Write a sequence for this structure.
């Protein structure tokens, strides 16, 4: 297998963005349960998720360089029932949107508790968005892995 440089570049950039986002959510969960100290900087999650978004956006931009006919790129999502590439094309922008929502929630300080665990730990909106984004990151990892497995 000899993939084009743009394929390696996009896979690396998107994977780095996913990994950074999952790490941010893991730090938030760890600090919520007092397993990790909370970040010292108040904008830690905001800037981290913006960097994750920029990495995935750069990976998406790099994907256009290995298309034979870029004007037909929109058709790549048409066969989502049978194609892992189509599923990846659908999940990636949704993940990027979740990353931006996570950044926005931290920027706006949406620390409103939406649920409380039996132990008394409050789950806020930012963590809920982060968990949804982490699930999307996992789905994106699976889609990418299945593309290379095929």
């Amino acid at each position: 297998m000899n993939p084009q440089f743009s394929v390696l570049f996009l896979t690396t950039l998107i994977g780095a963005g996913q990994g950074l986002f999952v790490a941010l959510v893991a730090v938030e969960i760890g600090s919520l349960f007092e397993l990790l100290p909370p970040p010292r900087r108040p904008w830690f999650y905001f800037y981290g998720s913006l960097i994750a978004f920029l990495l995935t956006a750069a990976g998406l931009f790099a994907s256009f360089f290995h298309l034979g006919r870029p004007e037909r790129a929109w058709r790549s999502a048409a066969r989502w029932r049978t194609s892992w590439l189509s599923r990846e094309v659908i999940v990636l922008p949704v993940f990027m949107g979740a990353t931006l929502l996570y950044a926005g929630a931290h920027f706006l300080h949406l620390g409103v508790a939406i649920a409380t665990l039996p132990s008394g730990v409050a789950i806020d909106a930012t963590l809920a968005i982060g968990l949804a984004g982490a699930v999307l990151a996992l789905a994106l990892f699976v889609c990418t892995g299945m593309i290379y497995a095929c």
About this structure: The chain has four helices and two strands. Residues 69 and 90 are 19 Å apart (CA to CA). The mean pLDDT is 88.
